[in-house]
Amino acid sequence: MVSSRLGDPPTLAPVTRRLAAYPTLRFKLDATPDWPEELITALQQTGAVDSIDFKGAYKGTVVDTRTDPAFYKHIAESFPDAWLEDPDLETDEARRALAAHQDRITWDAPIHSVQDILDAPVMPRTVNLKPSRFGSLKALFEGYEFCEQRGMGAYGGGQYELGVGRGHVQLLAALFHPHAPNDIAPGGYDALDPEPGLPESPLNVDPAPLGFRRAVD
């Protein structure tokens, strides 16, 4: 799955240009309240949106997104099958906006440990176990074990790891949750017009001869 914002001003191009090269590609999109209605309609028609990231759990960062309960509700209703990641649920109005969609709420930015999952405002059915946030393999594997014991889904994400780090997160995803909505596509998908021949999902467990990572594609 490819994770992307849609530009400023937002357009459909980051989705359609990639789909032109890889028609079965899936997307996790950073939703911003400046999305016009015609863009939302066009995104619906692609059928390619698996996850919406509201970026509501970030505070004081360059990716902060304004909390807009009406927008939350509209997006949740417009993409009824998509996961809804990191909404800001600090206000009653925001909680009411997503009350009917709680089973699709999932978390990324606040999750650094099993305790963070337990402390989440809504207990998720699936959660982003991002290796870079957990830090150690021990803590990460505790997260995998917790999800398995609870029957909770897990998926992986990256934070623009380069080189060996990208191989780490891809191998972990291939081992533990290959069919989940992982937003760790190979780097070639970052291009608006990706080159042909890129590996497609799910990535195979293809360890490199040395080190803990997938082989370089």
Structure description:
With 217 residues, the chain is an alpha/beta fold. The protein has a single domain, classed as Alpha-Beta Barrel (TIM Barrel). Helices cover 33% and strands 11% of the residues. It contains 8 helices and 7 strands, in the order βαβαβαβαβαβααβα. The longest helix has 14 residues, at 137-150. It is globular. The model has no long low-confidence stretch (mean pLDDT 92).
- Helix/strand/pairing class, anyone? alpha/beta
Strand order of the largest sheet: 1-2-3-4-5
Report the radius of gyration as a whole number of Å: 17 Å
**Shape assignment:** globular
Count of individual domains: 1
pLDDT < 50 stretches? none
**What integer is the average pLDDT?**
92
The number of strands is 7
Architecture, according to CATH?
Alpha-Beta Barrel
Helix content: 25-40%
Order of helices and strands: EHEHEHEHEHEHHEH
Which range does the strand content fall in?
Answer: 5-15%
How does the major sheet shape up?
Answer: 5 strands, parallel
Main CATH class: Alpha Beta
The termini sit apart by 16 Å
